[in-house]
């Protein structure tokens, strides 16, 4: 992949120069006071090449929808789920890889996957009760001591070469993260005995193996899971944070650790944990074989107590998330009769009309997190506090693919303009008088 990237970098640098020269002064539309005080919704203010999100259709990775990725990216078994290594290749180069290229990348990642022993010593200092996301971020920070970018910067590397150590750090971190993540799982939930990597397995299957899952179907689920959670254009909290922190030339480890702290928020990646807890709350209070009426009451109770229904809604999407849809397909194929899957299907019928009835929710449909926990439960990964770590391992692939390009294109430090209430009031009063 590195040699292909080396050919692509100068071409894309020229492309950026041309865009700046020819279109630099063209307006992309105005911002409003609502956008300023409302979380910058819809502001077109960031370049993100690896994926693009359409409100109705959902995500496309380098132009490919999820079903297209499932068809075109190499799989471990015929007709099976895509290998995340193939997606990584696609995100970094913009090209669909051959089977051989993916096999080469799997080998490259395996060769980079050794985690220094002191990283585990650092993690062992944490109380087991520390949230797995806190431990994941700490593990990434411990790995940061091996940053090639930080070393090269200290040695005075020329800015035109920044992308090269960024590439090395990115592949190293992507390679090392499953072992760190699996160590956290085994430590917190399985009495501390880690499982050694299996060098014959692909990236996702090996991660599942190190967690303690040998079922082929679980390996397929992990391939799908890691593929679909990787990237969701640039504006979401984790991706934007990595881009922002990276724009200060903080190395990939520092940038990803920051992004993971954003992913650990309940309105973002932690929602997958919250969904499972919410479903368990339904089962506990009204039983697994719940009537529509009782479920409606439970949803209203959640809303009236000032909480969100986790797994529903989205800042950009306005239809059912295709990442939800493909997990539903997976469930229909592998666990059609699972009671919790049936519950998820029932929730899908009940929740959207209620969210619409509130009159304020812009997207009443399920997002990626509404489904993932139920699939993981089925295959035995029942510790919901761990779910966001799986999301984090996957998201690292997407955000680092873009970070390599941020450095290759020499994108500048991020610095949007902020305003005060006073500034907004004065400006709007003056405008009203005109
Ligand atoms: N349940 C209850 N209320 C919801 C809601 C939900 N699922 N989704 C949105 N709302 C509320 C908002 O809290 C907001 O209320 P307010 O005016 O009282 O503050 C109002 O509806 C308008 O919000 P919005 O414009 O529709 O959404 P947003 O862009 O502000 O927020 C999101 C998007 C995802 C944070 C929100 O839909 C939400 O909190 N969902 C539940 C948590 C969740 O599933 N997060 C995961 C998202 C995907 C991901 O990042 N992994």
Automatic annotation (TrEMBL):
It holds the Pfam family Citrate_synt. The keyword Nucleotide-binding does not apply. Keywords: Transferase. InterPro entries: Citrate_synth-like_lrg_a-sub, Citrate_synth-like_sm_a-sub, Citrate_synthase, Citrate_synthase_AS, Citrate_synthase_euk, Citrate_synthase_sf. NCBIfam families: cit_synth_euk (TIGR01793), PRK09569.1 (NF007128). Transmembrane segments: none annotated. The keyword Ligase does not apply. It comes from Sphagnum troendelagicum. PROSITE patterns: CITRATE_SYNTHASE (PS00480). This is Citrate synthase. Belongs to the citrate synthase family.
